[in-house]
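quick one: 6-O-phosphono-alpha-D-fructofuranose bound model?
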Amino acid sequence: MLDLLIEETLETQVTGKILTIQRHIMEMERQYPQASGDFSGLLYDICMAAKQISYHVNKAGLMNLLGKEGTENVHGEQVKKLDIFAHETFVKALDHGGHLCVMGSEEERDIIPIPEEYPIGKYVCLFDPLDGSSNIDVNVSIGTIFSIHKRVDPSETGAGTLEDCLQPGWKQVCAGYVIYGSSTMIVYTAGNGVHGFTLDPSYGEFILSHENIQIPKRGSIYSVNESNFDYWDEGFKNYIRWVKKIDEKTNRPRNCRYIGSMVADIHRNLLYGGVFCYPADLKDPSKPSGKLRLLYEAAPMAFIVEQAGGKATTGTQRILDIEPDGLHQRVPVIIGSEEDVTVVEEFMQGLRV
Ligand code: P6P
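yep, here:
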């Protein structure tokens, strides 16, 4: 049996069928002879964090057997809320590699400096360590979202600053998400297309499974939380009325699919086509620009979707053009298939009623 297994493994390596994310990153790096390997090292660290988070997310259902949050589990470990665990895992995986000068996380109010005992690098990483974590208890897919910039002044060698974090999305050098679903996948772009890698738990490697993802120009799905209908402005309400009307010529009514986990909703639309909307609403006066965050949710997702041939806007402005004014700034998000996003924009700008 073992001989058969070894033979199979050799066969796949010989035929080259299996491309790990590490080899993919190295092959991408070879396109840049001047590359220092710094960027590749940062991506390896992110993959490591993703594997650790995946293991604990998949085990979360057993946590009740292994100990309640805030208690010690059977291994004598402190049981933590998974989003705190994910945050700490990401920070610990990235803070000592010498690739970053500063980090920003949804879980931390302020920027996260690199501990003084570790070397300072030239990149910035902003992340939502576990988006949609309220869905964990019901086994719904959740995700990690990350965005990578170069520091503003490449000649600077000291600690990174808030200014290094507050850069517009078009300056990202890389963006990606990890989706913890029926399988764990990393989907990322470094500006040369969008590629998906599925974790093979049998040997703990992310394997290329979705090369050069292209989002369909139009889809039959719209993703939105319709319970907010009465809080929306008239333009977006008109879009929702339009998308639900019967009209076979324009493929309506469209299908409403909403998981309530941004990574899962956008991942599905990336592969099938469609539009995800989280517009501004009057539901919470403290969130006049909607719920989703610019730096570590909207901007990385916008980079990915645009690289896949889609579109990402607030309804009036390209998301990647927004000049950030705060680490946790919120923005309206209309993102997905180019033609579908354009229709939503036309309604939101009053060009259609
Ligand atoms: P609502 C999850 O809490 C999240 O941040 C995103 O992942 C998701 O798209 C959105 O909020 C869902 O928000 O208001 O529809 O529950």
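The two ends are 67 Å apart (CA to CA).
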